[in-house]
């Protein structure tokens, strides 16, 4: 039986408020549901799925359905919304916000649409730069303060952050092969909330 494969979107994901930029370039099925795209983003960026998240397009919000969000007339359950419902033409953008306290905003830009390669598995990370910040580090400002402290032995917080990260903290680290290996796992390798505590 002939099966039509969906178009592939090439999207660039850029974490806002950090210089030099932390970014990923992904190839994803255009018809991927947003709740699955969330999982792909968690793995590709290096987050641990410990916090609330939401997608935004203009004044519209898309995320997990719960009683609080249902009261917002601009909100829609993201389990029934696909990426190509929001991104249709190259240059179109949406925002993915993770950890509403630290306020990590990711700008997602549709770069181009392509046909799927017959033997390729999607989603796929094809490029990127720099390591994702640690969870709960205080957002872009807190992260950059932390990096400065780790690099400078004279910084009053150097000893504290060095002890917090005994193996070091390398903001330039980026392992494309590792990301793609994890994306092959169930749920695109995204940790389910509280997984580690349940083990």
Protein architecture, described:
The chain starts with 7 loop residues before the first strand and ends with a helix. The protein has about 200 residues and is of the alpha+beta class. The longest helix is centred in the C-terminal third of the chain and has 13 residues, at about 140-150. It has an eight-stranded mixed β-sheet with strand order 5-4-3-6-7-1-2-8, covered by helices on one side. It is globular, with a radius of gyration of 18 Å. It has seven helices and eight strands, in the order ββαββαβαβββαααα. The model is unreliable at about 195-199 (pLDDT under 50). Helix content is about 25%, strand content about 25%. It has helices at about 35-45, 65-70, 85, 140-150, 160-165, 175-185, 195-199; strands at about 10-15, 20-30, 55, 60-65, 75, 95-100, 105-115, 125-130. It has two domains: about 10-130 and about 170-195, MM3350-like (Structural Genomics Hypothetical 15.5 Kd Protein In mrcA-pckA Intergenic Region, Chain A); about 135-170, no CATH class. This is Plasmid pRiA4b Orf3-like domain-containing protein. Pfam families: PRiA4_ORF3. InterPro entries: MM3350-like_sf, Plasmid_pRiA4b_Orf3-like. It comes from Marinilabilia rubra.
